[in-house]
Amino acid sequence: MPAKRAHKKSRNGCGICRARRVKCDEVHPECGPCRKHEVRCNYDRAAFTPRRASSQIGSVSSPSTKSEIRASLWEQSLFPMDAIPPNFGQPSARMTDLQLMNHYTYMHMVGTCQHDPKVRQMWVYDVPQRAVGCDFLMQAILSFAALHLHIHKPSDPKMRVLSHHYFGTALRMLMLQLSRIGPHNSDMAFAASVMIQFQVFMSWKDPCGHGGDVYRPPVAWLEMCQGVGSILRTAFANVSNSFMKPLLEAGPNTLRGMVGPAPSTPESPKDYSRPFLLWGTFLRQDLTPDQYILKKTFDFAHDLYVASVNGLPKSASRRRLLTFPNALEPAFVDLLRKADPRAMITLSYYFGVMKMSQDIWWFHGRPEYEINGVYSILSEEWRQYMAWPREMIEEAANIPFGKKLFESFRTATIPTLE
């Protein structure tokens, strides 16, 4: 007598499980095995023809280790455009996702910047095409569009929820790929990282972070810059001939700044430049245990300033400004987290130098916001050291910190990724 089956045969399982000949728990929208192996679950049987099942997906039963199976399944989730139709979500959410995709396309078709046609085609056509079957890139696209809508329509509760949901999901999924980036997915990881990096730089414009009139140092922003920058650097080596090539050719200086290593520690100057002299002298006389970290960070900012006033090309200036977060020691970020006035004043000098490079669109409004914010929470004894940073934002120095200041710069110059 044949042995009785230990379980009921799955007749409505997803295509991935059927191709692998494993039991599917038939959970929608994502079954347990696909969730476990972190691949895109798909219940569209039409997408899994016998040819595909036997020649590609079925072959994954040969790897012997769990990591090999996971890597193989991940590669199989990156189906070509003609294999699987877009699966943006469940029916109840599909219209929202289509709205966000439409807005993403609209942003790049009618953006305010002068566009390189090749770069425009890359963002409008090539990136969405590759996002079909690549969840972390699709999430990054939807996240970018949702944040843009949220910034421009802060009263829309739907976009408020979606912008945070998609950003968190995109970042979480991308971080999972960090140890698996290779030729099979580096171009998509790089595209998603660029989009998330832009969102990180623009996150200060998120209305949800400005519910009150009390300034908070940009700790999360600095930490995210460092984290996403590591993904960009990991993926950068394999994308020179990928669909992202137009972006590399159009903006190599900016991108190399984003993926570049942390700048080397500059030598402490014998004499600080006049704008930096007052605060530099204070730090040299500071005898606390934090003096080394504070002075090291301040020397970085001073080095940026000297290079800029001495005629450093704008392209090189961009690179150095963008790699500044990578140079920060964890101890300095901890001081910012505690709202240490010395750390906040030191960082204000960096934002003062940033004001000198307003040709980078995602810097617009940021120096005014941060410098005014720091000044607003300092006591009188510390405010004297903010003279030069406030001089750099003279037109906004007298706007009280809070919603009025935030609204002055929130929607100003938010173009596309070009």
Structural descriptors:
DNA-binding transcription activator activity, RNA polymerase II-specific; about 425 residues; disordered C terminus; Fun_TF; 3 domains; mainly alpha; CD2-Gal4
Coarse structural class: mainly alpha
Binned strand content: under 5%
Order of helices and strands: HHHHHHHHHHHHHHHHHHHHH
Shape: elongated
- SS summary, helix count: 21
Mean pLDDT: 74
Percent of residues in helices: 55-70%
Give Rg in angstroms.
25 Å
Instruction: Give a quick account of the main beta sheet: strands, pairing sense, barrel closure.
Output: none
Give the number of domains: 3
Low-confidence stretches: 46-91, 413-418
Any overview of this molecule?
This protein is an all-alpha fold. It folds into three domains: 15-76, Irregular (CD2-Gal4), CATH 4.10.240; 91-259, no CATH class; 274-410, no CATH class. Helix content is 59%, strand content 0%. The chain is built from 21 helices and no strands. It has helices at residues 15-20, 32-37, 50-55, 66-76, 91-109, 117-131, 135-152, 157-176, 186-202, 219-236, 245-250, 252-259, 274-285, 291-309, 314-327, 330-337, 341-355, 366-377, 380-383, 387-392, 403-410. α6 crosses α7 (135-152), α12 packs parallel to α15 and α17 (341-355) packs antiparallel against α18 (366-377). The longest helix is centred in the middle third of the chain and has 20 residues, at 157-176. The chain is elongated, with a radius of gyration of 25 Å. The chain starts with 14 loop residues before the first helix and ends in an 8-residue tail after the last helix.
